[in-house]
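Predict both folds.
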Amino acid sequence: MAKIDPKTARKFRVRARLRRLSTERPRLSVHRTSSHIYAQLIDDHSAKTLAAASTLEAGVRTDIKSGANIEAAKVVGRLLAERAKAAGIVDVRFDRGGYIFHGRVRALADAAREAGLNF
C-alpha cells in the first residue's frame, strides 16, 4: 500500500469535512503555484465548474505585476466573486485545497468575502 504524502492527506481531510458540513452550496476551490493562483466554483453534484478566475487571464495580467503575490490573489478573489454573483451564487464552501489559510490563500478569501461571497 502506497503511503500518502502529508499535503495530499490534508487536501483529502479538508474536502471530506466540506462534504459533511454542507452539500447544497458550490465549493470555492483554490490552487496556487509558485507563479500563479487559480480559483474556481465547483458544483460537486454535477461535477461542473460554475465560475473560474486565475492570474493567467489577459484582463488580470494587465492589473498585476506578478501572479505570485498577495495583490494578485486579491484581484483573482474579487473577479471570481463578481462572476459568481453574475451566475446567481452567493453562498459557497471554501476549499483551501490543503494549503495553509495564510498569505495568498487568505488574501483571495478575504477579497471574495469583501466582494459579496458568503462562506
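Second protein follows, with its predicted C-alpha cells after the sequence.
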Amino acid sequence: MARPGVTYCDISRAAEAVKARGSEPTIDRVREQLGTGSKSTIAPLLKQWRNNAALNESDAGLPSDLISAVKSLRDRIQKASEEAVEQAKQDYQSQLQTLEHTLADTQKELSETLGRERILNQQVTDLEANSRKLNGELNGLESRFAVTESERNALQTRVQELKETVSELKGENRAVRDHFEHYQQRTAEDRRLERDQFQSQLRQLQSQAESLTEQLTHSQNEKAGYRVRYETAQEQAEKVAYENQELRHRLESFSSTIKKLESDCSIKDKEIVESERNISQLAVEVRGLKEQLARKSVTLESFETDLRKIREYADHLEAENKEIAEEKAVLQGRLVQLQASLEAGK
C-alpha cells in the first residue's frame, strides 16, 4: 500500500522530469526528485509508468479509434486506480487513526500497567523489606525466646532449689518445733518439779513458821518482845493455812514441845534465835529458787525469741516462694505470648 502523499501522478511527473534531464528514471533518481517516499512504494508505481510509456510509444502504427479507445480505457483504469488508491488512502487513514487510537489506548493501558507494575514492584520491595524486618524481628524473638527459655530454666532450677531449701527449712522447722515442744515439756516438767519442790519446802517452812508462831503465842506472856514476831508469823500462817490441812495434825504433835518451851524461857530464846536463823536460811534458799526460776524464765524467753525468729524466717521464705511462683506465672504468660506471636508470624 502506497504511503499518503505519494501517488502515481507524482511518480509520473518525477519520472518525466528525470527523463527530461536526459537520465533514465530509476527508483533512486525518482525518490531523489520527489524528496520523499520509500523504494517499496516507488518501485511498483515506477514500473506502471514504464509500462504506460511503452504503450504510448507502441501507439504509432495503430488506428486512431483504437488508440482513443485504449487511452479512454487507460484513463478510466487510471481514474479507477486513482480512486482505488484514494479510497485505499482513506481506508489507510481511517485504519491508521483507529490504530493510533488503539495504540494510544494500548499505551495508556501499558502506562497504567507499568504504573501498577511499579506499584506492585514497590509493594513487593516493601514486602521484601517488611519480610526482612520480620525475619530480623523473628530472629530477635527467637534469641529472646532462647534467652527467656534459659531464664525460665534457670528460674525453674532456682524454684526447685528454693523448694528444696523450703523443704529443708520446713524439716528444720519441724525439728525445731519438736525440739521446742520437747523443751517445753521438759521445761514444764522441770518447772512442775521445781514448783512441787518449792511448795514442799514452802509447806515445810509454813509448818516450821506455824510451829514457831505457836511457840511465840505460848511465850507471849513471858516475853513481850516476841509479840510482833508472833503476829507476823500468825499472818503468814493464816495466808498458807488453807493450802494444807495436814499441818494442823502436825501442829497438834508439837503441842508437847510448846509446853516444854513455856517452862524454860532461856531454852525458848535459844530455839527462837535458831528458828530465826533457819528462817533466814530458808529465805536465802527461797531467793535462790526465785533467781533460778528467773534464769530459767530468761532462757525460756530466749528460746521463744529464737522460735519467733525461725517462724518469721519461715514466713519470709514462704513469701519469697510465693513471689517466685508469681514471677514464674508471669514468665510462663510471656512465653505463651511469644509462642503465639511466633505462630502468628509464621
